[in-house]
Amino acid sequence: MASEKSFKRRKITDDVDGGGGGLLESLPGDIVADILSRLPISSIARLMFVCRSWRSLLTDHGRVSSSPTKPCLLLHCDFPIRNGLHFLDLSEDEKRIKTKKFTLRFASSMPEFNVVGSCNGLLCLSDSLYNDSLYLYNPFTTNSLELPECSNKYHDQELVFGFGFHETTKEYKVLKIVYFRGSSTTSSSNNGVYRARGRIQYKQSEVQILTLSSRKDQSLSWRSLGKAPSYKFMKRSSEALVNGRLHFVTRPRRHVPDRKFVSFDLEDEEFIEIPKPDCGGLNRTNHRLVNLKGRLCAVVYGNYGKLDIWVMKSYGVKESWGKEYSIGTYLPKGLKQNLDRPMWIWKNTDNGKVVRVLCVLENGEILLEYKSRVLVAYDPKLGKFKDLLFHGLPNWFHTVVHVGTLSWFDTPFDL
Predict the structure, then answer these.
(1) Are 210 and 136 in contact, with CB atoms under 8 Å apart?
(2) Considering the entire predicted model, what is its pTM?
(3) Which helix or strand (DSSP H or E) is residue 10 part of?
(4) Distance (Å, rounded) from C-alpha 367 to C-alpha 259?
(5) Beta strand 261-265 pairing with 271-274
(6) Where are the beta strands (DSSP E) in 16-170?
(7) pLDDT tens digits, one per residue of 256-282
């Protein structure tokens, strides 16, 4: 009996240390993929650290991902400093969902950061202090890569970023639009800059791009695409990746007050103007672009947190714009302590700083973020709101909708 127990113990040890994935490895690949597709991505990620054979097996199925309708929510904590990254896995049972925190191995190199974008399970992060560092990061596998610096640097620059993937070329690209005032970092001249309405306006620009793919012979280096289009974009990262194109909103100018929707094609590397919906107020800062269920949408804000969501049903066709949702005023319980200052709650409501539209969930509810403090689900059929309360939710955060995967930028794609 003792020898039998010893054999069993030895067999278990061998499975964990040298081949813990023996049972999974013996199954056909399609069955393994089906099993993994039913697990939350956070659970799959934990299995990668059981043993080497499991990590190898799961890496081979790296395209397994969380559902776009049950995504992971990454919470970028920006108070008191921008260095925290938490997540919620909405594919788990609602009663078991807890906020968990990622540990960034490169935190010493980039103590504060902004999230440029999320695509295919990868994050692009930029240094929020000095703007000269960019990292590619998969939070579930902990893979990270510091991207090379661009050789062209400018004094007193303003940056607009974009990050995305194109299905045809199978390439990731990081887009950097630089607005600057001088010819180099050593220039002390004020040529190329002037002030208008108290804000510095930069007259010079350059578009730079970095390509990442699965090709082994690729070299990571920035390319210049020349000057940016004549219109200037809002100082924030690309708001929506749809049809392999990054989308931006332009700033109004004195002689051209009309705001425009502009896309950047990640395959052709060209800027193209996108037709806007025929609704009022799009010349002010009361709208944002968002990807909902794979379609380009414009969120148009009204007074006191009211908003309309317009959907472009056929991409690039102006006549296909239609108002899909209307969401009324709502005050989450987490903000009711500010009832003594009701006007403060709705301050800056017209530019999306009070209510952000995040995504459409599997049950058809719309996920909203209020004042960077509360998550709310809105049922468009019943017109009802529900505050989402999760254990360990940070006090202040910026939500990023993220489809988690175990892949990396050089993971081969099925062509």
Answers:
(1) no
(2) 0.81
(3) helix 2-18
(4) 27
(5) antiparallel
(6) 72-77, 84-89, 100-101, 113-119, 122-127, 134-137, 144-146, 158-166
(7) 667 889 999 999 999 999 999 988 666
